[in-house]
Write a structure and sequence with these properties.
Number of helices: 4
Distance between the termini: 40 Å
Structural class: alpha+beta
Helix content: 55-70%
Strand order of the largest sheet: 3-4-6-5
Length: about 180
């Protein structure tokens, strides 16, 4: 790999990682601690990630148990979950919060797949934009005499091959997520 395209490949890797993080927030029929990654709890005036104020565990496939480190936060955690767009109903017994993950309807599964496809398309666009930026930079390096004509061609080919590989990766990640959503 040429050093000219290395920063662009790093950006592409970050795009893939961001897509995976986004996919973790899509609710499937199964319980997952990652669902709550974006939930913020009002903790003494600060919005803190749920994972920093409580333990989130999955004792069963369709059950989430949240145990706050400070019992006085139970109400705030409950409020934060209800305000999130997860569509879940927490129940609080004074010590812990239990959340039963209801099975998804066929219609909801299809909506989630559509959402996942849109996220994947945004990632593909991001990858292509990074390729375009890389190619522009390579042409500038060639114009400035830093890269030869052959060096330009080789680097552009390398960048295109990497772009193609990342697009295939995105499609595979999407396919896996679709299966997960549809199986529920």
């Amino acid at each position: 790999m040429s050093e000219e395209i290395a920063p662009h490949l790093e950006r592409m890797k970050k795009s893939i990682a961001a897509l995976k993080d986004e996919f973790n927030t899509i609710r499937t029929g199964r319980a997952s601690a990652a669902l709550f990654d974006k939930v913020r709890v009002d903790y003494y005036g600060d919005k803190s990630p749920l994972s920093q104020v409580a333990t989130v565990s999955i004792p069963e496939a369709r059950l989430v148990v949240i145990q706050p480190w400070d019992k006085s936060l139970l109400g705030e955690i409950e409020k934060a979950i209800l305000k999130s767009e997860l569509g879940l109903n927490p129940s609080n017994d004074g010590k812990i919060i239990r959340i039963a993950i209801p099975p998804l309807t066929e219609e909801r599964r299809k909506e989630l797949v559509k959402q996942a496809k849109a996220m994947a398309e945004q990632s593909r666009v991001a990858i292509r934009n990074i390729r375009r930026d890389g190619n522009d930079e390579l042409k500038k390096l060639q114009k400035d005499g830093i890269l030869t004509e052959d060096g330009l061609k080789t680097s552009e080919d390398e960048l295109q091959k990497s772009t193609d590989k990342f697009i295939v990766d995105i499609n595979k990640i999407l396919e896996d997520k679709e299966k997960e959503i549809m199986e529920g």
